[in-house]
Amino acid sequence: MSRRVVRQSKFRHVFGQPVKADQMYEDIRVSKVTCDSSFCAVNPKFVAIIVEAGGGGAFIVLPLAKTGRVDKNHPLVTGHTAPVLDIDWCPHNDNVIASASEDTTVMVWQVPDYVPVRNITEPVVTLEGHSKRVGIISWHPTARNVLLSAGCDNLVILWNVGTGEMLLVLEDMHTDLIYNVGWNRNGSLLVTTCKDKKVRIIDPRKQQIVAERFAPHEGLRPVRAIFTREGLIFTTGFTRMSQRELGLWDPKNFEEPIALQEMDTSNGVLLPFYDPDSSIVYLCGKGDSSIRYFEITDEPPYVHYLNTYSSKEPQRGMGFMPKRGLDVSKCEIARFFKLHERKCEPIVMTVPRKSDLFQDDLYPDTPGPEPALEADEWLSGKDAEPVLISLRDGYVPIKNRELKVVKKNILDNKPPPGSRRSHSTCDPDFSRPALEEVLEEIRALKEMVQAQEKRISDLENKLCQFTNGTD
Questions:
Q1: CB under 8 Å to 275, separation ≥6 — which residues?
Q2: What is the CB-side half-sphere exposure of residue 392 using CA atoms within 13 A?
Q3: Which has the closest alpha carbon to 248: 209, 294, 297, 303?
């Protein structure tokens, strides 16, 4: 009788490889802030890295193709008055990035396709609502302009970036510092981990806790949790003896784990990066010099160890490229951007295949840049799966789309009718011709501003074409 010894998997031979030295990003002063953030965010156009900055917080944005030594005078994104703690690219617009800071604000920035001449200092919108530093931000996976922020005031706030307004505030749910927050695939639920040792599944629109589990890992050190594609919860934490541990849980039966595996003894918190298309989870520890990866399946032991990528240098942070930014012709299934003290090193994960043809089994349709819902639709209770695209012919990033912020005018909120009349309505000195003259002047100014905006937009497009032509 034949007995299968080795588990069949197309990802069993995945291997990691760093790029050549000339394809790294050198001379970057990576931030030294003590925070469990990944310090790096990547999309198919840019890599953004939180850097050291005097007198405030800053991060640098580099086009992916701009490898090699980075000029020490390269423009930064500077607007925060204290260190930046987290950054996240918008999944529906590759030119929009959000940043969270110790100064209690969240800022959303529009990054041009060309390299700007001077620092970007003006955000598109500043979101103020937290009373303490903000350490976590995360965009909604399917709804346009919905951004989540979590701060040291134990609040989770959901914003509509398109209007600059708070949509929802989740208060009185967390009794201590929030370690991490993650969305499920369609953005209907959140998973959070907290210093009070609880993992919570939250329905943000109903503002209620759907399920919770106390101490999935018995150690006191921070726990991380993410949703898998099937709606399970994958966690990383520590045992009572300070060994690192991973777990897989079913929120419908939170008492018993589906899988619980001890790993090694180390201090670094394991940051999980999950690829829903291949069901592979990559674990990167801050201060580690390795990336371990596991495949999650529906057969025991459910979390299968695949391999470890090892190097000599410890990592200060890590960026994870979305699937649409990968090179499908080389069977690349993941790309990491590993932060050293003074550089950023891309690491490519590849499935060895002999054929040069497109591999359908490695690249199922993946979430694209189009949102499935508007913010108002999501808030009213609608859910939608991500809008998928095929990677058969590779993905070409979309040209810069401007983020428009339409703030509601507080003057539109008319005061309730009453007996009190304002002075202006009964002022006999203010004649009608004078009012019409002022209105005419306002109309002329509006036309002038619109003409200047059009001129600026035309010049930016010409500059973009010029730089694209010379690169």
A1: 281, 282, 323, 333, 334
A2: 5
A3: 303
Mean pLDDT of 339-343: 94
Distance CA 108, CA 128 (A): 12
Please name every residue paired with 373 in a beta bridge, in sequence order, or none if there are none. 143
Question: In whole angstroms, what is the distance from residue 99 CA to residue 136 CA?
Answer: 9
**CB neighbours of 412 closer than 8 A, spacing ≥ 6?**
none
| Best CA proximity match to 46, nearest among 119, 106, 113 | 113
Q: Which amino acid is at 468?
A: N
Query: Three-state SS across 15-62?
Result: EEEECCHHHCEECCCECCCCCCCCCEEECCCEEEEEECCCCCEEEEEE
Confidence of residue 356 (pLDDT cuts 50, 70, 90): confident
- Model confidence at 355: pLDDT above 90: no
**222-245 core/surface letters (b: 16 or more CB in 10 A; e: else):** bbbbbbbeeebbbbbbbbeeeebb
Q: Give me Rg for the CA atoms of the chain.
A: 25
CB 78, CB 129: distance < 8 Å: no
Helix, coil or strand: residue 324: helix
